[in-house]
Every structure is written in C-alpha cells, then in structure tokens.
Amino acid sequence: MSIQNIITVPDEMLRKVSEPIEKIGVNEKKLIKSLYDTMYNSKGIGLAAIQIGIPKRIVVLDVSKKEDKPSPYCFINPEIKKFSKETSVYEEGCLSIPETFIEIERPRYIWLEYIDQNGKKKNIKCDGLLSTCAQHEIQHCDGKLIIDFLSKLKKEILIKKLSKKKNSSQKLIV
Ligand SMILES: [Zn+2]
C-alpha cells in the first residue's frame, strides 16, 4: 500500500464509523505501515485509517518535534477510559480539511486503553499535544471532524468553500 491519497472534506467516507480490528494479520500490518508512510509524507502528526478510505479503528501519531527523535504511536481499537477536568487549547488542523485551523479546547489528560501492533493490550496516560492529537484521531474513527466544533452556519460556509476548491483543483488536473 505504502503512501496513499488522503480523503478530504466533503467526502462522506469521513463520516463513516470505523469497525474494530479483530486480529492483527499481514493486511493490518501493511495498513499500519501505509498510515505511517502517508502521515510522515504529508508532515502530519496523526492519521486515522478512515482518512485513507479504510474504516478500521487504527490511528497513528507522532507529535515529536522535528529536531527530536521520532516518537511513533499506533493505537488499535483505542478507547478513552477517563478524561481530566483540566483542559488545554490548541489550534488544530486536519489532513482531511486543507488550510483550515480551528481553536479547540479539550481535556488536557486522557487515560487510553488500546491494542498495540503486536496485539498486546496497553494503557497510556496522554498529556498535552499527544492527548489532543489522540482525541482528534479517535473522533475520526467515529466519523467526527474538527469542523463539528464550529457553529452550523460557519461549518456550512466552510464546507462550501472547500467543495469549490476541490472542484476547481480537479478541473486543473484534467
Ligand atoms: Zn484529522
């Protein structure tokens, strides 16, 4: 599979609820590699399988800084067990929503249960950017997007704008 195209708004695929993974076999391992390749290639810090058109509950993340060593995470069937009351705010972008940044307040800490690439059940406490990014990616698995944090009107205007852009760029390719 390797580097894949990333699906963008308003593609309805992004609204699909992803299915849990039952077994990590050759195909799942290939998918994970593809997700990492596609995420790093697009300079993103997180990517969910649904964003490349595969409705399975797998997300990859790497929130390390450019100058630091990579710090990849792969969460399979991630489940948030607890949210902190304390929050943090980040301006979030999304590889599926070009040129759009939205300020979002989310719980600063989350306690996450997931399965790793080797099929082992694990727990992790996520802080700050990792917490925000994990929540963003898990929402992709549930068909939710950062534009859902906007008012209905703002969201409609933005979707219209993005649809126009998409159509015109498709014309250019032709
Ligand atoms: Zn996203």
Spell out the blueprint of helices and strands.
Blueprint: H1 26-41, E1 46-48, E2 58-61, E3 73-83, E4 87-94, E5 97-107, E6 109-115, E7 121-127, H2 128-141, H3 152-173
In short:
With 174 residues, the chain is of the alpha+beta class. It has 3 helices and 7 strands.
Structural write-up:
There is one protein chain. The protein is 30% helix and 29% strand. The chain has 174 residues and is of the alpha+beta class. The protein has a single domain (12-173), classed as Alpha-Beta Complex (Peptide Deformylase). The strands form 2 sheets. A 5-stranded antiparallel β-sheet has the order 1-2-3-6-7. A two-stranded antiparallel ribbon has the order 4-5. A hairpin with a 5-residue loop joins strand 6 (109-115) and strand 7. The longest helix is centred in the last third of the chain and has 22 residues, at 152-173. Residues 94-96, 136, 140 line the site of zinc ion.
